[in-house]
Amino acid sequence: MLLKGIGVAALGTTVTLAVQPVAADEARPSARTYQDCQGVTVDKDAPVISRAGVLIKAPLTTVWRLHTDIDNWASWIPEITPARKTTPGPLRPGSSFEWSPQNMKVKSTVKTVRPLRCTAWGAPVNGITGVHLFTFKPVKGGVLATTEESWAGTPVEADIPGSQSSLDAGLKDWMQRLKDTAEARSGCH
Description:
Layout (H helix, E strand, L loop, with lengths): L4 H5 L38 E9 L3 H9 L15 E2 L10 E4 L6 E9 L3 E8 L2 E12 L2 E11 L1 H5 L1 H27 L3
Antiparallel strand pairs: 1-7, 2-3, 3-4, 4-5, 5-6, 6-7
């Protein structure tokens, strides 16, 4: 089964800091710069890679809390519930969490975290290996939040255009929800 919508967006890792915001549907140029979180990147050889970025007019701490408070993702992304951390304490390398996009059971493992700056995690699901990065950069007027994700595997290769479209839409939706929720909770618009 090919993943669709928001469920697809949460398979992977976190994005890097110093990257310009890009449209989620940007074509992958051959000389592309990839995001990095403490040495972790997406799978640069994956047939599907997507990126989405947004300026969030809210404090960095608000954005970071929403992003890393997995047990409360349901408050702003109800389609991926239940979502829960399976390791105690803050997110750190080796932490894991379970969530259910599209009624699938996914167990993601955190690869790296740089508090208030970036996260990266990965998960295999239904033959797809995803790596998902998020980065957060304080800028004038708020926080530049960027996400980048790669998908590899037989299901992806069987429908690259469909997989690309699905991941593009999912990442764009995820980032818009993060923006809307952070701005509403902080009273900034």
